């Protein structure tokens, strides 16, 4: 039985304050990932602090504008579902390798040209959609949740690389937030249940504030207002960089397709090929726009599928407001800096629940597949291969760079294996497309 949605895709919360509160939890789920990519790339390239800040501001502004377009739609661009756009870790490896040789200008120029792969690829999505029947889609949705869950576990333990990783205090705070989110969802009514994520995070933040665990240094140092400058770093177009980024965009098409399928399941919305093409086109056009605005490439975030699954708020108008909040965070860096002060264990408690909800959605979909030996083989092998890369990324350490780039994501590996097995094994399952 499908979960009852509190707000359908086209619904609008009757009160603006309610819509802002609901949109805030999407912001909290996405902001850390959006900021992390420019910080990682900037740190690897040893950029000065002011240039890293410029990258972060551009990423926030670009993410906000493209989120609005993805949710609202502009002509053929935008899937018109509750999607949050953000800088993607799928481009970090290629970006750093290009940046070390050609600087940030090389990353941005390569991204601009590489985004054409996604823009052109969008026109083939009605065909590609047919390679994602129910069994394949179920595997991809499950792998998205399984791949994100370790991220939440790392947050709950204090963050990757933390000296006190796994400290009892971190786990206790994460457990406190997790328990509150469960209570709000299960026993809360109306807006309390719908905003369970933001209420849980806010409660955890207050607890950490009382314990003296909040560091406001970044807030004090952040500028109050800043306008990201287009072409701030300039652009260069090295052939090697364009090839590397184009490969990353090809991989992202597979991952984003899976994310849209997961979002369709969470919002109880059919995703025909033409609608999928509009979403992929927005990812490509958005990444080209981001490059001009001096931001790393963008893609649709899977994290926010968990927010929809957990809260039952599937309104694209709510997430449009999230885009507005991201835009404001890009113009007022002090706001983004304030959100970044949220301790990782607080995010971990809420994230564990959100990402596990995606796993649960995938399991429900898997349970709906036809019980046959063929489907069991597809599910078992593709999940096994996807998890192999997810839990043991060093498995590919001795492989050529091209192989690591293409198969470095468990979601991509699982999706490709599932598609291949569905094509090769007798009794192929077809996905009949329908008009948008």
TrEMBL record:
This is NCS2 family nucleobase:cation symporter-2. It comes from the Bacteria. It comes from Acidovorax soli. The chain crosses the membrane at residues 20-45, 51-69, 81-98, 104-124, 131-153, 165-185, 192-214, 234-254, 318-340, 346-367, 374-391, 406-425. Belongs to the nucleobase:cation symporter-2 (NCS2) (TC 2.A.40) family. It is found in: Cell membrane. GO terms for molecular function: xanthine transmembrane transporter activity. The keyword Acetylation does not apply. NCBIfam families: ncs2, NCS2_1, pbuX. Pfam families: Xan_ur_permease. GO terms for cellular component: plasma membrane. Keywords: Cell membrane, Membrane, Transmembrane, Transmembrane helix, Transport. It is a multi-pass membrane protein. Its main location: membrane.
